[in-house]
# Entry
Amino acid sequence: MTDALSIAQQLIRCPSVTPADAGALGVLENLLKTHGFEVHRVAFSEPGFADVDNLYARIGKDAPHITFAGHTDVVPAGDEAAWKHGAFSGELKDGFLYGRGAVDMKGGIACSVAAVLDYLAAHEMAHLVEMNHSPRFWRVVARVCDHVERAKTWLDTHGNDLHRYGIQD
Ligand SMILES: [Zn+2]
# Structure
């Protein structure tokens, strides 16, 4: 199982205060590249603002597409001495993760990346047993990656709403 906490800590430890990246995109780029994603850096420019680097990663070419979008930049930490746990420490204490972006939204990005990588691993493993996408295949995927059924149920309920936020390829 992919360690979402470790990914979140790596991201939080990058002081990526807008427009700085401070290595945060590199954490994701290396991880996703290692797992077969095609990755691209795209600079967003707007007059009067510093360029902001973005990362676009994709795996596979077939429809339907599922897109996870988010940001790795954070607002300034303010007086860092006033933080009980370092603003960029990624410290884990009593079951809580601390640091700028832990909630908004490095934690969320870490969870989505971990979920996708787990799903891809389960999918590949299931093909070792079933060389198709039959009901038997999906039962193997569900056994290997137990949150697939929960995700499918959520998609069955809310999936159509996602089309409202589509992008042009
Ligand atoms: Zn397949």
Observations:
- The CA atoms of residues 142 and 150 lie 10 Å apart.
- The two ends are 31 Å apart (CA to CA).
- The pocket of zinc ion is lined by residues 123, 127, 133 (CB under 6 Å).
